[in-house]
Write a structure and sequence with these properties.
homohexamer, about 250 residues, alpha/beta, Rossmann fold, 4-stranded parallel sheet, 10 strands, about 45% helix, Asp/Glu/hydantoin racemase (chains A, B, C, D, E, F), Asp/Glu/hydantoin_racemase (chains A, B, C, D, E, F), Iso_Racemase_Enz_sf (chains A, B, C, D, E, F)
């Protein structure tokens, strides 16, 4: 099985971090194909960059998805997720989408550790958009930008641990989700210091992508995730235009 | 006052239709500045085109908003709305966002007339995203594409009237919202045939944009709608890149 | 355009305060017609007074609405709002109803500053009644009665600023609504000290009333806001009885 | 024990109907004291009449509650309920409030039979206001005014039975609530023709009022149901003014 | 009238405590028949014990309900409640189910005092399961096990009072529910020290059971609470097997 | 990896059906260990049998889980799920829990096909209990008992297909979940006749169980899913008693 790991941020180092975590989780026989957006934000950290990232993500996957059995949208804000689910006949999952579904499956309500409070507001919208808003026990912010976390993973581990423990002890979260592409690999660093399960998106996305691919579900022929048919577009990435040309 | 009416679809004819409806509603002294996306979808009708439209909208407004006192994102799917609210220091409203807020202000729950059932699913997500999901009495589809409605407004009036009456009589909607940029001007055609108020987005957006501009609210300095500061991006529209360069 | 500004409290001084704020916001050509309840509570501050105020409001507007293009129910608890929407063929908005819709249109969740915790409970019910309960980030109380705030607006500004900042910084509100008729004009005093938009009801109600009036929506002929027809009532204010007599 | 049965409608015949049903349900030793509003609507059937009824109800109970151990607000729209709960140190329940709590206690979601669709919209708001909106399986209207139902109880029984059965069979309601003061005594007429429990407000209110009175709960000293203290009001019913004078 | 008070915990002392509280509340002529589970947990305090308790409760009631007019499932976690509602033709209520309905009937949102935070998570699920999740103002834990509270009721009274006051003063709860079978009789100890009504489950269950029994509602013939008909089971308590044998 | 497939119903034939479907889905190297309840209901089809099944499930898994890396509670009503999650240090998933999470991951709202309307009410409670109530587009019943479906899978396929298509075409479900242990293997029979993805619980549970096991999440030490510690129980299955004896 081949899984496309598509990073809508342009930072290759983060792609590498996530690819390593993905390979560590993947089943024997699963190949991870990491790709990075060709344009857009280095590290998406604002609503404006989210829109750019959605488009960069859609174009990237349009170009790279051939021959893949599943796709992981590899960013905390699940850039372009629903559009990519529509575009492809294979399973597509996002980091935050995957992590919160995995958390919900451990039972009980879950909490989120986010980089900044700005991110927290966006994450709440996302969790509600996936229908799991009632399961959100709390959101704690590290008080720094995603870029800053990426720049100092070891130092960040302490702050992340503190936030995770607060979620468990004060907000009654029965599991904790670390939000962010840069959190790939972080649970292993801190799991022994947090009294509830700690989950991050890359590993959750890998196992869910593999699992959904094995279910072999059909591509919808009806509804908002069915192929769009032949649409009229101009001035967009050629790979994307090809996918709006009426075939499958 | 000058209001930017930004159409994220590339169809100039729809921009003209909306500009006419906007001018018919605008207060004396309000200038409507209609602009049309330079690339993207002719008529957004799929999740994939929504992502393209978000980006085309953000770039368009980045380029054209100078000197404007308010901005209307002139499409049913409010392309790039939240990112544009973040980008600018002036009020920004979308067609659907405006129409449903106006409907809610008439009192009672409201229903939506949409072009296709595919659109209905997306609209439900949008209404829930704006926090008004509990006020949605029902959604009725015309069973055609937005492009088809645009191509035959007179013939569509009958189907729209039927759907609106069903929402009022069967779903107990106390007002009806016609979803779609192409619905600009439609309420006047059918108001006498529907027993409850009929609202569409362009006129609602104009009065709300004018009104919010007169409130003179400050630009947030905190939160997810505060300016993003200096962000690192590559390969994006220059007007948009300029706005991610750290100034305001 | 003429807008009726109907104060269901009997305190003329508050009516004057609100009328001044309304005129400062109104468009050129809009006349504000302030009226004050002829009986009832000086300053509504309990559930019992809310019921009295609803009735006083309905009677007041029944008497004074002739020739008006829109009506503002000028109290924080939007006295008799839904009944007045039913009674008249023109737009009717309340202070809190208007303020929270304006807040929601700036994007993001909003917080409320209220006078007492007692008011907070009632406000939560109202926000939920308007369908925007999921957008409420928090409620902070000043710890005093509405009368006390009215008696010392300058001193209250400090406490209001503190509460507003807490809502923004701790509760992640992306805008703040100051609840209370007496808050008219307050945002201008404190806007530079609060990092997010500050909104109050009178100015929001004026722009929304003007805007809705310009939409020219029809009066419902069906549903709970349609005219009541000829109803049998005794012992009520004559102006109100006239409106329950079967005409329009 | 003495229970005040306060009818905010002025129709004595409905008071008598409800008093008979109340006495048939009351425990030995419970005295029912029926009273009827001295002014207001004959049969509340519009939002305007609801406001009049709230005030008439509050004044009526202010005058008549002395020496009573509990109060039933005897109308479908629970006129003035929360204000009366604040006003008195004894339990106060409404017809619809009681019926839906009883229904919820039988287990499963419940449906409502209402007189007109206009009433249905108001009832939905009320059920949501009591926090039980998620338990509402459906609402079916008889298509007539409350007055018409009162005028022909025998004929209405057939229509009511049909609506109740539809709620059970199509909307999966596991119990049915008949909304309306005039439904007192109706369940006995139709219970054998409906496959799920049928509940109406007067009998539910009697048993809940008796039960809550026996719990002997304290009067709140804090919160929105605590006594209002000394308030300044003018031109209101003297009994009501007395209760806003600072005692109890 | 005879009410079965069925304790799904095996601790006779708690049954006796609850029986005393039940008798103190019961109407003249109501006989309380206390019974204790024959197997299972001494004091249910984990999800595992909840499942055991559900089964022990169902078997206990199957055996003991004959000749009873109502049943109280006498534990905080309402063991087997819905199954027992299905099993019997008489009203069945649980402690927590009863207490929160009584609290909601006093008006306003309510708070819960629970023994441990572990219990708090379970209680939130239960309140949401009954449809009253939106009425939950807060949950405060005593930080001890239910067994510990039972072992020191006098000492616990102080901690319970503190938690109750915090719910009223900080979380704006307008009434407080003490969760736990061991709280029977506790409100009387602390009512004068808490500014809002304090409610516990045994007394609430008694008055609700009596009241519902007097309504004489029919046994459902349709829906998930209708009798199961003849089912095939093996190896279960004989009294329970008899009730799954096709008769009523 | 070894996965315990625990059937809380006593019907071995259903266990075999599910084991075959599980093996068809499982990854190479995954061993499925099917076990069947030693007592209880043949086919759980009532709330009473649900309680019996919860207990039978808990006892069964207590006895059989040793050496397993994950557990599937193999019944539509996820018997004892939360208690088993608490009991074990490995992932535990239920059929319906798994199916609805998989459905939600395909994007869009989902619909349920259930055997009887009685089941539908219970399923709605379950979906809401997992936090995904807002994602439920509709529920359609086959109008027969789970036993009947099991007795005629081929004939049932037509009715299931009809219900699935109605969910997609009328209720706008973007995927369909077939509820019931007996639905194992059914999607393959009908996938080509339904225009949206069709999902059932056994295959979804297998891939989710495998995936969660690979994440290697820690066992909670805090919260309602942490081990219960030493609890006092009598008269329960010895394997279950051993697990309540204080060891992890």
């Amino acid at each position: 099985m081949r899984i496309l790991l598509a990073n809508p941020n342009t930072t290759e180092g983060i792609t590498a971090l996530m690819a390593a975590a993905a390979r560590a989780t993947a089943a024997p026989g699963t190949e991870i194909k990491p790709v990075t957006a060709g344009f857009g934000a280095a590290v998406i950290g604002s609503r404006m960059e989210m829109v750019v990232g959605d488009y960069a993500s859609l174009a990237l996957v349009a170009r790279e998805a051939e021959g893949c059995d599943a796709v992981i949208v590899a960013a905390a804000i699940d850039s372009g997720l629903r559009a990519i689910k529509q575009m492809l006949p294979v399973p597509v999952v996002g980091l935050t989408e995957s992590a919160i579904h995995a958390a919900n499956l451990t039972g009980g309500r879950f909490g989120l550790v986010v980089s900044s409070t700005r991110t927290g507001a966006v994450m709440r919208e996302m969790v509600e958009g996936y229908g799991l808003g009632s399961r959100l026990a709390g959101i704690r912010a590290l008080g720094s930008d995603a870029s800053a976390v990426y720049g100092d993973l070891e130092g960040s581990a302490r702050a992340i641990t503190t936030a995770a423990c607060q979620l468990a002890e004060e907000d009654l979260a029965e599991s904790v989700v670390l939000i962010g592409a840069v959190m790939a690999g972080m649970p292993a660093r801190i799991a022994d210091r947090v009294p509830v399960p700690v989950i991050e998106g890359v590993s959750a996305a890998v196992v869910l992508a593999e699992g959904l691919a094995r279910l072999g579900l059909r591509k919808p022929a009806l509804g908002s995730f069915a192929p769009p048919g032949k649409r009229s577009v101009t001035g967009v990435d050629p790979a994307l235009a090809a996918r709006l040309d009426g075939a499958g």
